[in-house]
Amino acid sequence: MISVKNKDQIKLMKEAGRITGEALALAGEAVKPGVTTKQLDNIIRHHIERCGAKPGFLGYGGFPGSACISVNDQVIHGIPGSRVLEEGDIVKIDTGAVYKGFNGDSANTFAVGRVSEEAKKLIEVTKESCFRGIAEAMPGNRIGDIGSAIQSYVEANGFSVVRRYVGHGVGEELHESPDVPNFGTKGRGVRLCTGMTIAIEPMVNIGKPDVFELPDKWTVVTADGTLSAHYEHSIAITDEGPIILTKID
Predict the structure, then answer these.
(1) Which residues pair with 108 in a beta bridge?
(2) Is 19 within a domain?
(3) How far apart are the C-alpha atoms of 127 and 144, rounded to whole Å?
(4) CA-CA distances (angstroms) from residue 178 to 6, 41, 46, 149, 215?
(5) Which domain holds residue 120?
(6) Which residues of the chain fall short of a pLDDT of 50?
(7) CATH no. for residue 43?
(8) Cα dihedral angle (46, 75, 234, 100), rounded to 10 degrees?
(9) Are the beta carbons of 206 and 122 closer than 8 angstroms?
(10) pTM of the full predicted structure?
């Protein structure tokens, strides 16, 4: 069942989103060669807890970190640890905060020092594809309009969209209905309505879209070893258009 939120609930989600966005930005500022993924995770956890919220990812399904931190060919769900970031890496950070019972969920991809032109393009295309998907999140449109906008932009730029993992509803639960694929056909799928809150999160590969899970049962990597980028915002669908809940000023 799809949960529709009222204005007070969306207000709480916006606060959860603000805390999430701030934590993500602080971690991004700390990204540089020599930093470990665990240090980034600690920055995120400290900020979320200092704001009176809880890390939404910590313990979720048994996950051991406050953020999923994935490097280079790691697509999503990387476990924070002793890995040291190196010049030229790209690092995806995905995190969320729970505030008064509501979840924020957001992700970004950061360059570690100077990266290749191809990596820069991948990051830029992934981010832009997310905003193109968000622009389609209007009452009366359908889920397929979001996915089609993302897929068409990504593929026009020579990259591929991961299909095994998708966006989702978000609210009192981190993952709610409906699924929000980053691919699809315009005019197909669930009809969007005012009060729906969803997380739009394109995962984009330089190579083929195929991925697999490592033996740690969490980390997902590209099957062909190519780079992957990830970008995500939680949004609310309103009569005035989509509101980004995880955006910070």
Answers:
(1) 93
(2) yes
(3) 19
(4) 18, 29, 31, 18, 29
(5) 7-240
(6) none
(7) 3.90.230.10
(8) -40
(9) yes
(10) 0.97
Does 1 fall in a domain?
A: no
Number of domains in the chain: 1
Number of other residues whose CB lies within 10 A of the CB of residue 66: 29
The three-class DSSP label of residue 99 is: strand
Interatomic CA distance for residues 162 and 89, integer angstroms? 20
| Length of the chain counted residue by residue | 249
Rounded CA gap, 212 and 162, in Å? 11
154-203 pLDDT, tens digit per residue, is 999 999 999 999 999 999 999 999 999 999 999 999 999 999 999 999 99
- Residue 117 to residues 55, 90, 111, 122, Cα–Cα distance (Å): 34, 12, 11, 9
CB atoms within 10 A of CB 225: 10
Give the span between the Cα atoms of 178 and 100, in whole angstroms: 22
Token pair in block for residue 201:
């999160």
pLDDT score, position 122: 98
